[in-house]
Amino acid sequence: MLAAENTAKHFPSRNQARMQSSSGIDLAYASSTQTEALADIYKKFHVSDAQLATLIARIKEEMQVGLLEDDAPDLKMIPSFVTGYPTGQEEGVYLALEISGMDIYVCQVKLKGQGGKLAINQYQYKIPGELATGEDIADLIDYIADCVSDFLIRVGSQDLFVYPMAISFGFAVEQTALNQGYILALGHGFDYANGVGCDIVDLIHIRFQRKGLCVRVVAIANDTVCTLLAHAYQHPSTKLGIVHSAGTNCAYYEKMENIHKLQNAAHPAYTVNGNDMIINTEWCNFGSKNRHMPSTWFDRKLDRESNNPNVHIFEKMTTGIYLGELVRIVLIHLIDNEQLFGGNSSEVLNIPYSFDTSYMYVCENDDPETLDGTGVILKNMLKVGKSTMADREMVRKVCEIISDRATKLVGASTASVVQYMVEHGIGMDSQSPGFAISISGDIYEDYPSFHPRVCKTLKKFLPDDIAAKLSVGIVKHSRIVGAAIVAMMAEKQDESIAYNNR
Question: Mind listing the pLDDT tens digit for each residue in 350-385?
């Protein structure tokens, strides 16, 4: 059966388990009309095994389309240019830089080998508000260089040593090589006149040199690639990485000969030397063009009113930014139909995204006998006022219905990638002991029922002999540590190329 490493610590109580295995409308306090209203919600959000099986088949089809052409509609299947596998025996000192929203994280990772031992020094910096916009993005890069300089002083860097560094960007970057990429969009409130189209690594090299930093940027990496490699250094069997938090993505190892778009473009990175390459699927966008997702009118309303309609549909049905908003939309619907809170909402609840996804954690894991935690959320956070036990029960059940669908979609999507890998002989054959899946993200770490449900769906859609060969590890601090591992992998690739060219 599926094994789990460092999975969520808390699991649903006996009463919660009873409700999860029921018809979806097993309520103790709600009236018959409220129960009927919730039964309708359950029916709309319920995803059958047949629908999940179809979803799995469609994802595998879209993966192959994305490997064939750059302009694939849903799954972009972006080459990371990271090839080969870490062994856990590598040693060295590497720097990592992560730009996430208005935060900068600088990290020094000392790889000690010995089966994946490492030591971490990390510091966080805040980007001043006035540096979020401007005419020249070099001003922002200069500030980042100052942060790196300050960090090197803190850790006592060696003046005669040039530190290899990898960068994990929060910007949308079109990566064209392991250490080359162009900014497609800034996002997160950043706006620079010369930002889009900028060769970000080249600019960083120039500004770092002007600051006299002994740093060489050897790679840029997507956060999901970093999640995969952060786990792989300590668990070399890791072949698949998933990020599921505010957003979602999946990366996995692909055989080089299957990446047809690199071969067709005669890209220098294409080689048949046996090295597999990590592919960034960008599965957050699945269902956006071809409408494969089993969506409801609640989902369509959320998408239509979002700041990026018609994109990232899978993300909008499963992740931390949007799950709470889906709950809020459903609650407003029940209020408008006078099945909740006596038909009365609140100013806070009427505000989009006011029902934070973290509230779902509290409601789902509340004591079903008192539902005090749900009452606190409704009164203190959403200013609903007095709520009945029936109100709290319905809110809790809505959270459960929506999170249950999300876990099934994530589990089925993971199963589709595993099935694809098995069918194409990647990391799993009759002689192989199997491989590990690395997962990171606040939802997996903080939502007690989320990960066990994902594993349940994953196991359902895999043959027993395959499921028995999989393990799942939840990793923390994965992006920044993984970026340092990417730097190490980049150095290994350079050494391999130099050796082969002798």
Answer: 999 999 999 999 999 999 999 999 999 999 999 998
User: Which residue has tokens 């002999």?
Assistant: 465
* pLDDT averaged over every residue in the chain: 88
The full length of the chain comes to 502
CA distances (Å), 412 to each of 51, 251, 311, 361, in order? 10, 15, 20, 22
Please check whether residue 481 is in contact with residue 229, taking contact to mean a CB–CB distance below 8 angstroms: no
Give the model's confidence band at 166: pLDDT under 50 very low, under 70 low, under 90 confident, else very high. very high
User: Tokens 């699991």 sit at which residue?
Assistant: 11
State how far the alpha carbon of 267 is from the alpha carbons of 260, 261, 402, in Å. Answer: 10, 9, 43
SS3 content of the chain, % helix, strand, coil (to 5): 45, 20, 35
The string of DSSP letters for 324-349 reads HHHHHHHHHHHHHTT-SGGG---TTT
CA-angle at 440, arms to 177 and 186, nearest 5°: 50
Alpha helices, DSSP H, located in 424-500: 442-446, 450-460, 464-467, 478-500
The arithmetic mean of pLDDT across residues 172-193, rounded, is 82
Dump pLDDT digits (tens) for 63-87. 999 999 888 888 999 899 999 899 9
- In tens, the pLDDT along 202-214 reads 999 999 999 999 8
Alpha carbon 120 to its chain's center? 22
Separation CA 389–CA 393 (nearest Å): 6
Task: Report the alpha-carbon distance of residue 484 to residue 298 in Å, rounded.
Answer: 41
Task: List the one residue out of 388, 366, 485, 448 whose CA is nearest residue 111.
Answer: 485
